[in-house]
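INTERNAL AUDIT FORM
Audit reference: QA-55
Scope: verify that the stored structure record matches its stored sequence.
Auditor: D.O.
Record contents follow.
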Amino acid sequence: MTANTSIGDGANYAPESQARPVVGSGEFRFAAACLDHGHIYGQTAGLIAAGGTLAALFEPDATRRDAFLARFGDVPVARSYEEILDNKEVQLVASAAIPNRRGPLGLSALRAGKDYFSDKPPFTTAGQLKEARQCCAETGRRFWVYFAERVHNEAAWHAGELIERGAIGRVLHLTNLAPHRLSRATRPDWFFDKASYGGIITDLGSHQVEQFLTYAGCEAGAVTHARVANLNNPDHPELEDFGEFTIVGDNGASFFSRVDWFTPDGSAVWGDGRSFIVGTEGTLELRKYTDPNRQTPASLILLTDGSQIREIDCLGRVGFPFFGQLILDSLNGSELAMTQEHIFRAAELSLEAQRLADQGDGSDSEG
């Protein structure tokens, strides 16, 4: 995978913004390891913009390694992952390994006394999640996840700020539409192997669940419907190209999401991601990547309340505060960016929705 700031390529898209460091040079040192997915570029760029120092790299594939070094400069290259873990200067390991390897790699980092920053999905099985919960409790370290569709999108981040300020009252319902471009010719073999990627809801759905928990202020929820299918790729029978699911939160808010690999080639972006949020006193529509036929790229919010309809252009204006908050949390033991339980709950609910969909009936047997 190579760095790509083009919004047409979702697998390798790495948003850029003006640097807003929260620490000085060398105060927070991190390593990048196992670069199987291009999201590692966004993870790395975000940490550097917030003041992090990229101190080491491990990637056994020479093509991926050289492309990463071309983007981020002369970084010391480790001969093994264990060498990264033994490096006492490294405080956090960022990784975008093959999904079913992310959890185990994270446990190794935590046990070595480092925090871990995984691409999503962080786990492909409930067993991996259980082990991570236990390891975090035992080590006191943090297992971060790159839920990029909120934390690395300006409209999505600002929507959370508006909701927290009470702009639309109490959130009642969220609909997330999350189409993605398949780009079959550029995908590695593991992309089509369900044991490797975990299923479409485990993968793409984890982004969506995290947004619901954040916007609705839920601490937990129950999956009430889930469905997955291969609708148009019979030559790759283990690829799920369509999924949908619903959740009811512990505070009564409800959620629907559609995830798919059907972005048309005519689209200028990898996916026209939208959120529709209904509150007691207003609504928000998020056009996260494009405003079709008007502006691309775009990061736009349409806010309707009791007195007006307002268009809020977030592109290049909000930035990406998550990365600075992550660094400060890692250094200080705080929970500014998101709590550890929030991260694990988002993963848990997406895994539960995938499990329900895999059962085949699409609905909760307990009603």
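Auditor finding: record pair retrieved intact. The longest strand covers residues 171-179.
Action required: none
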